[in-house]
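Running this now, will post back.
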Amino acid sequence: MKAPSRPAGCGGCPLNRRQFLSGCASCVGALGWFTAPGWLRAAPSPRPRIRVVYALHADQQPGPDWPNVGFDFVPVMQRLTNTLVAGCPELEFVVAQAAGEAQAKQLLEADENAGIDGYVVFQLNCWNRVVQTVAASGKPVLYADFQFGGSGGFLVYNAAFLRARTPNVGFVASSDPEDLVRAARAFRLLARGATPTEFVAATAQARRGNTPAAGDRDCLPDDLDPLSAPDCLERLKASRILAVRGTEAGPAEPIMGIPMEWVSFAEVNRAWEAADRDEARAVADRWQENAAAVKDVSRETLEASAAMYLAQKAVLRQHEANAITINCLGGFYGGHIHAYPCLGFHQLLNDGLIGACECDVRSTASMVALTTLTRGRPGYISDPVVDTARRQIIYAHCVASNRAFGPGGPANPYEILTHSEDRQGASVRSLLPTGYLTTSIQVDQGKREILLHQGRIVGNDPDDRACRTKLCAEPVGDVEKLFTMWDQWGWHRVTFYGDLKEPVRALAHAIGWKLVEEA
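Update: finished.
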């Protein structure tokens, strides 16, 4: 593709929205990438020339994904570009967009004669594979997370770079724009002949130097009385997980010693159709009365969600099970089920049972194991985000219990909202209690390992992007190490209230597994 000339007057000044859009629009086409303010054809600048690449589906989010359907990325890209231009006057920035590997390759080919010295890659959506191709160029790369937008891909892809000791990729994961600027200033070293390895070391120094020190580690008292490991294992054998993801039905391989069974969407949908509508209305009444707010969710949707809760309970009874996990979005979008199960999961957790998202059997097993170990405390499955500016890990998902200490414990406020990614159905924002120590785990049957970290709960993030419930914790331990495991373990973690490190260690030992601490 022929590179467009730079619009007049775009030498390095921040752009307003109109300038940004006009500079980008001429290059939007079948390739889906653009340049703004443009590629220079003039003689090379004495300043290091840095290509900024935005990895995302489209300017306007076309479908359900983080941050949410319809999200307008143009102001985000404009703001980030302006932050770099204003904060790094010693550098020259040129901007592009890519949705995937093919477009990233075409971008690198076009850059061969463009005098590009390095790259900033922003992960705006989660799973667009752009940074891998850019990193393969060998040039210095600063990889940046757009939090509550691209965080899943960022954590997984960045952990792979760290594991491989990729010598030319540094990273920034911060809600503070100044941290982005501090990291990007490492590109200035290129003018003095620095190597990519020296560039990465400078970004790490900037990140670590501006991550706050650990705060107050005192936690509120918590009268936790866990089961012994042998007693827990006996009860796990009497548990059963139902996994719903398609047309399959019948026995499945146990996980962590917990029996498991496949159940079809059709069986769940039949139970939903058969649910007593008067009982569903009564459940919807209770949810509505107890919620701190109900926003953008119709009464019809609320009653359909209540019927789905009754359906899940009926299927659990039929199979003598205590846990169910459903491929919720696949079932709903495929027309296999006709109500989101989120509120049903919420109520099952409050009832002392297990309702888990996305047919994630590993997370479901984690929930069953530690709910059993803690005598009834619910697990909170989440998609975490790590923010070095606040020294926090934020656990985000569209469903959670509002009884963190078990069915007989105190209730915390909750709101009923749409499912965040598509603004449909009904889900929960639970404003969970702060000041307590929590333990987050994931299990892996193949590795025979349990992954664990702990955190002190410091708040609930109200950001409208991404999932509704966002529980904020200050990790106990090394925040830098917390970036290293995601490529091996996936994005989900399951969080429980309580200091469970030693009980989990004892449980792992009892089944011959290894405990791995990720922070």
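The domain at 17-209 is CATH 3.40.50.10830 (Rossmann fold). More later if anyone needs it.
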